[in-house]
Amino acid sequence: MAEKRAKLAEVDPVWARILMEADRAVADEPLLGGMVHYSVLHHPSLERALAYRISLKLANGEMTEQILREICDEAFGAESHLAQSARADIVATYERDPACHRYLQPLLFFKGFQAVQAYRVAHWLWKQGRRDLAYFFQMRSSEVFGVDIHPAAQIGKGIMIDHAHSIVIGETAVVGDNVSMLHSVTLGGTGKEEEDRHPKIGNGVLIGAGAKVLGNIKVGHCSRIAAGSVVLQEVPPCKTVAGVPAKIVGEAGCDQPSISMDQLLGTR
């Protein structure tokens, strides 16, 4: 077993670490043994574990866990980048969230991570033209996780959503790589137009709790949006904006605000 795990760590270090942490979790808390075995140790890969976890969470009287699991397995089998993005999301959560001490935690306990992975499957369905099924995933994610991401939205990898309650991301929104956001963030539209109407968030952006970014506007890479701000105009790269409506109050303060998670206003 040790030799097998060592070889796995060379090709899939994220999954190998999750398995190691799962073994330790069972030893530390035997009452969670069943849950950890069914969710992690029973599966040969992170892809299969993700499919199990998503289907378990989203199943209801209208759609069984087995059907949802087959859909997720199909998605992860068809698009390898889905699970690669999930690995990046796990690492991002571990590195940026001070409450995350193990790679295992997002997979088992963090609804922000789980909601993003459910969105990734829904987005794959959307691109396949299976839009009603994609809407089902969106509906159940909103009901279960309190996170409402339209399946047509485009979201990069290395995403960390802390707490994740009341997140809303609209249909034509684009979120780049290595973005961090806190609870109650809205990336919304304005008016009733059906065209491109939602924000475009650059790479490395930090969006504070309760911030609202509205309309087809660009938020430049490595910028910061302060908690509670309402952003109605374009944000240049590497700037900090705050207020209602939001105005530029300084530089971003560092090269990667989404990674440092420093939400204090002003320059450094």
TrEMBL record:
Q: Keywords assigned by UniProt?
A: Acyltransferase, Amino-acid biosynthesis, Repeat, Transferase
Q: Name one GO molecular function term.
A: serine O-acetyltransferase activity
Kindly indicate whether the keyword Transferase belongs to this entry.
yes
Gene Ontology biological process terms, A to Z: cysteine biosynthetic process from serine
Task: State the CDD domains in the record.
Answer: LbH_SAT
The UniProt entry's sequence similarity note says:
Belongs to the transferase hexapeptide repeat family.
Query: GO cellular component annotations, sorted alphabetically?
Result: cytoplasm
Q: Where is the Serine acetyltransferase N-terminal domain?
A: 14-118
Kindly give the NCBIfam families that the UniProt entry links to this protein. cysE, EPS_EpsC
Task: List the protein's name.
Answer: Serine acetyltransferase
Q: Any idea of its EC number?
A: 2.3.1.30
UniProt pathway: Amino-acid biosynthesis; L-cysteine biosynthesis; L-cysteine from L-serine: step 1/2
Name the catalysed reactions. Answer: L-serine + acetyl-CoA = O-acetyl-L-serine + CoA
The record, for PROSITE patterns, names:
HEXAPEP_TRANSFERASES (PS00101)
